């Protein structure tokens, strides 16, 4: 988990690692899925990477006021949820041994549902609105590269 901790640290997001049999605060889907409480991501050794990245991306994408008070349910609208999914794929490329393709396969296996039938097809062919949302909030640059800041940061 050091690579995840380093990645999240670039955004100012805390990482709390709990024991494998421990309770995960803020887990919307229940253990072993990741949880969020304010600016901290809660995981266990058995938390799937896609879950950790997804909840972390919620923290990155929400405005500062929501981030300061969030507990369990990230809220947001459908477009923000799409932006979260796109960003989690982008961040997977920054985790050694994970990568975008493996993460998208994991998302499909878990049951993420996209109009085109797979995460990869959605990411490559149908996520332009999510990319525009991320660019509009300064989270990725014009070329789609992650800027390593949270929404609302100057």
Mean pLDDT figure = 96
Structural class: mainly alpha
Please trace the helix and strand order, writing H or E for each element: HEEEHHHHHH
Uncertain spans:
none
How far apart the termini lie comes to 28 Å
Q: Calculate Rg over CA atoms.
A: 14 Å
Summed up, the helix count is 7
Task: Describe the secondary structure blueprint for this structure.
Elements (H helix, E strand, L loop, with lengths): L1 H8 L4 E4 L17 E3 L2 E4 L5 H13 L2 H6 L8 H15 L6 H12 L8 H7 L2 H9 L18
Parallel strand pairs: 1-3
Antiparallel strand pairs: 2-3
Helix pairs in contact: 2-4, 4-5, 4-7
Give a quick summary of the entry:
With 154 residues, the chain is mainly α.
Description:
- The protein has 154 residues and is mainly α.
- The protein is built from 7 helices and 3 strands, in the order αβββαααααα.
- It has helices at residues 2-9, 49-61, 64-69, 78-92, 99-110, 119-125, 128-136; strands at 14-17, 35-37, 40-43.
- A 3-stranded mixed beta sheet has the order 1-3-2, with helices on one face.
- The radius of gyration is 14 Å and the shape is globular.
- The model has no long low-confidence stretch (mean pLDDT 96).
Characteristic terms for this protein:
3-stranded mixed β-sheet; 154 residues; mainly alpha; 45% helix
């Amino acid at each position: 988990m050091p690579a995840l901790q380093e990645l999240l640290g670039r955004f100012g997001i805390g990482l709390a690692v709990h024991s494998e049999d421990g309770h995960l605060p803020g887990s919307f889907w229940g253990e072993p899925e990741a949880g969020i409480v304010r600016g901290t991501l809660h995981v266990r050794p058995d938390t799937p990477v896609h879950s950790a990245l997804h909840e972390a991306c919620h923290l990155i994408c929400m405005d500062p006021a929501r981030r300061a008070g969030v507990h369990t349910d990230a809220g947001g609208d459908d477009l923000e949820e799409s932006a979260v999914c796109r960003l989690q794929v982008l961040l997977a490329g920054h985790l050694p041994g994970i990568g975008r393709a493996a993460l998208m396969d994991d998302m499909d296996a878990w049951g993420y549902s996209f109009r085109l039938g797979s995460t990869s097809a959605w990411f490559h062919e149908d996520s332009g609105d999510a990319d525009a949302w991320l660019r509009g909030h300064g989270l990725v640059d014009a070329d789609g590269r992650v800027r390593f800041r949270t929404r609302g940061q100057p």
